[in-house]
Amino acid sequence: MKLRAANNRLKIEHSIIDGLRPVLEQLLEQNDAIRSIVPGVIRRVRDANGPVAMHLTVPTTNGWKGIALASGSRQELFISTAMDKPALEAAMEKALKS
To answer: Domain locations in the chain?
Structure first.
């Protein structure tokens, strides 16, 4: 399946959990240091009710792996950036509050 690009930085390979796409677009709009975000696999979980929440898990070769939680699901996020963890976490919080 070919990747479709939104704003050339949000790569959409498959679906995104409800409410997450506007947050990711806001995150990209506010931070030029983020090269791209690739949403990954969606899995059902019991403890993901309420508004969208995101957190970082582990560093990757070109950035960070994160998890987004909402609508009873969790989705992996692969974020390509040179930002350090505290700066990216602060940017994620700002995007969630916008």
So the answer is: 4-97
Q: Model-level pTM greater than 0.85? A: yes
- 5-9 — which CB contacts under 8 Å span 24+ positions? 9/34, 9/35, 9/36, 9/37
Please, which pLDDT band fits residue 8 given cuts at 50, 70 and 90? confident
What is the mean pLDDT of the segment spanning 87-94? 96
Strand order in the sheet with 34-44: 4-6, 10-12, 34-44, 73-81, 63-70, 53-60
Alpha helices, DSSP H, located in 1-98: 20-30, 85-97
Contact 46, 28 (CB under 8 A): no
